[in-house]
Amino acid sequence: MAAIFQGVGAAAALSSLPSNSFDSKNILFSPRRSFSVRKAPSFVVVRSDGTMNLDLNPKGRRAQQFIANAVATKEDSSAASSSSKPGHELLLFEALREGLEEEMERDPRVCVMGEDVGHYGGSYKVTKGLATKFGDLRVLDTPIAENSFTGMGIGAAMTGLRPVVEGMNMGFLLLAFNQISNNCGMLHYTSGGQFTIPIVIRGPGGVGRQLGAEHSQRLESYFQSVPGIQMVACSTPYNAKGLMKAALRSENPVILFEHVLLYNLKERIPDEDYICNLEEAEMVRPGEHVTILTYSRMRYHVMQAAKTLVNKGYDPEVVDIRSLKPFDLYTIGNSVKKTHRVLIVEECMRTGGIGASLTAAITENFHDYLDAPIICLSSQDVPTPYAGRLEEWTVVQPAQIVTAVEQLCQ
Amino acid sequence: MRFLSESPSVYSQCYRVLDDAGQLISHSNFVPVSEEVAVKMYSNMVTLQTLDTVFYEAQRQGRISFYVTSIGEEAINIASAAALTSDDIVFPQYREPGVLLWRGFTLQEFANQCFGNKADYGKGRQMPIHYGSNKLNYFTVSSTIATQIPHAVGAAYSLKMDKKDACAVTYFGDGGTSEGDFHAAMNFAAVTESPVIFICRNNGWAISTPTSDQFRSDGIAVRGQAYGVRSIRVDGNDALAMYSAVRSARQMAVNEHRPILIEAVTYRVGHHSTSDDSTKYRPADEIEWWRMARDPVTRFRKWIEINGWWGSEAESQLRSSIRSQLLHAIQIAERAEKPPVNDLFTDVYDNIPSNLREQEKLLKETINRHPKDYPADVPI
């Protein structure tokens, strides 16, 4: 597993990096705005995916299966004593908790409300232990009334608290749509700026493992139109913690989308305090031939496909867009200007999803740089079936991504 | 085996202090008010009544686009406001401008919001009567029904965490109690033991829906017990009763950390709004009867006159003064500049993001190219 370094120190380590290698060790982060096209890969690369390694071994090849476990902790990294490496290892849900806990310690106004978030610790254990540490008033168990406890969160935010509202599953927040659209996104504006709503609404969404249609909703499609809110999607322990903290510090209402299948991803993250900018996309793998834009779980399907593509001689550039509202058109634009070909891989449905908006935004802004029409791979416009095979077929698989790139690049 | 009846054997009592003639009902207990407070309450009730009349006329003349009156509910508005402190946070529905009036919102400020001019605190973004004032602890009115009720519980939760000597107060109508938000908020206020006062203005009508079509319970006060919330039914047109009830409720809410539900029984004398003609669904003589015989303003005036605190000269002076102040405020508001085009894009977020800046630029370019298609009085 690679270590991730933040900002300072990046320049020094750069020289030791062999160019064009993706050895999963020292991949560096360089400050955002000084980004320019370089030959040596010197941008942040997410290493939660052990399959990043270029030298393919049969173990890594899983052509027949979709990604069941995106993270394989490699044997050698556990053999190396963890005390010799900087940072600490944890799972994504623990990273979310750590981010939340640190912010709760830092700012007494931060509080959590949701179903079973208190002593039960949350249905995905993101709030485990927080009620014991901070008390029942700061980690509040609510009755089953999403619209109302979201409304409560909004009222509390307007009065000076910084609440985190947890939807047990994002799909349940459909019940909170009225409060989110009509009040959360709106009241800062309609009050003439008199009242701010620094609320964070978070929860797991996306297609899981046979959870049925009602528990496989992609709420980002529905909420993207609401003015006044920001939306981000985390995909690694590093950005999960960073985005959680940034969201809590933001004065605007932020919806943080987590994914049900990514909670157990393991990664080594820095010990120091850091945040991830809410409006930035993440460069996962720089490349030259095609820009693949994705977010959340699909990032891992894309990286799996990237392995196959590299074998076939392609050099895809993978960008985890992370910020779903607004889009980071700066990073995305630079990528499009470099590769001239765009593939969007999302879990949303074809109609009205994030991909649809992204396609429109890219076409509008970067039309002259495109050598081919944008391809958007999404789920079909069907409710997610329960049956395992059927569910598999509604989610974009690596094989389709490979085919789409081949089609784009011919 | 005994089933609980669907309706109580005895309907909930209605707390009243003054009878229709403005005289104290014997054996009624109430919180006494000084002459100063009583006269201030009465003046505010008259101001509210006049404000409503003048603005309603202004809408009919086409000077403002929309208006909602609170005629018949002046006692609820003013008396409840008088019983609260300025630290208590108010979450209104839209028929409670009297609370703002009591707290010091000026006639000019009301007019500015209705005309949506540059001085409006809402920067022209909301319909008329959607007032909001941070400094007066009155949260901006949102058109959606009952969404403010859970907001109040959230605010009470915040006040409780900060251990403040204040409570949250929210108002809603009989129709609003059918919304899911009402039930969950009541339930949750009880469970979290929050200092919040729920004031229901049961005025008999939700636009054209009478309460018989809205619910089958014995009004709203009985619902309190279902959630574990202490409640009371009050004659909403009796200013003294409203004052006493809210005063006691506040004490209980703040000292005992409990929610209280007050059902103020009244009548919506005006139409639902300027977009409604209520004679289409209710008899005109019913409206007239409530307007004249059951007017809360008249009733309270009789009481302060009995006490020698008011007279007909003071009355006519007050009414003409308020009316001329209002007409003046309207004239100023009407002539004032409208908010600039930038205000279309600010406050969506804390800082204007790049996509909105782009959209603003596009709009300005379009306006510059076709100036005659855009209103001349809106500054760019």
Automatic annotation (TrEMBL), chain A:
Its cofactor is thiamine diphosphate. Its main location: plastid. Its EC number is 1.2.4.1. Pfam families: Transket_pyr (PF02779), Transketolase_C (PF02780). CDD domains: TPP_PYR_E1-PDHc-beta_like. It catalyses: N(6)-[(R)-lipoyl]-L-lysyl-[protein] + pyruvate + H(+) = N(6)-[(R)-S(8)-acetyldihydrolipoyl]-L-lysyl-[protein] + CO2. GO terms for cellular component: chloroplast. Residues 90-265 form the Transketolase-like pyrimidine-binding domain. Keywords: Chloroplast, Metal-binding, Oxidoreductase, Plastid, Potassium, Pyruvate, Thiamine pyrophosphate, Transit peptide. It is found in: Plastid, Chloroplast. GO terms for molecular function: metal ion binding; pyruvate dehydrogenase (acetyl-transferring) activity. NCBIfam families: PRK09212.1 (NF006667). Tetramer of 2 alpha and 2 beta subunits. The pyruvate dehydrogenase complex catalyzes the overall conversion of pyruvate to acetyl-CoA and CO(2). It contains multiple copies of three enzymatic components: pyruvate dehydrogenase (E1), dihydrolipoamide acetyltransferase (E2) and lipoamide dehydrogenase (E3). This is pyruvate dehydrogenase (acetyl-transferring). It comes from Gossypium tomentosum.
Automatic annotation (TrEMBL), chain B:
Belongs to the BCKDHA family. Residues 44-341 form the Dehydrogenase E1 component domain. The keyword Phosphoprotein does not apply. PANTHER family: 2-OXOISOVALERATE DEHYDROGENASE SUBUNIT ALPHA 2, MITOCHONDRIAL, 2-OXOISOVALERATE DEHYDROGENASE SUBUNIT ALPHA, MITOCHONDRIAL. Keywords: Metal-binding, Mitochondrion, Oxidoreductase, Potassium, Transit peptide. Heterotetramer of alpha and beta chains. This is 3-methyl-2-oxobutanoate dehydrogenase (2-methylpropanoyl-transferring). InterPro entries: Alpha-ketoacid_DH_E1_comp (IPR050771), DH_E1 (IPR001017), THDP-binding (IPR029061). GO terms for cellular component: mitochondrial matrix. The keyword Nuclease does not apply. It comes from the Eukaryota. It is found in: Mitochondrion matrix. GO terms for molecular function: branched-chain 2-oxo acid dehydrogenase activity; metal ion binding. It catalyses: N(6)-[(R)-lipoyl]-L-lysyl-[protein] + 3-methyl-2-oxobutanoate + H(+) = N(6)-[(R)-S(8)-2-methylpropanoyldihydrolipoyl]-L-lysyl-[protein] + CO2. Its cofactor is thiamine diphosphate. Coiled coil: none annotated.
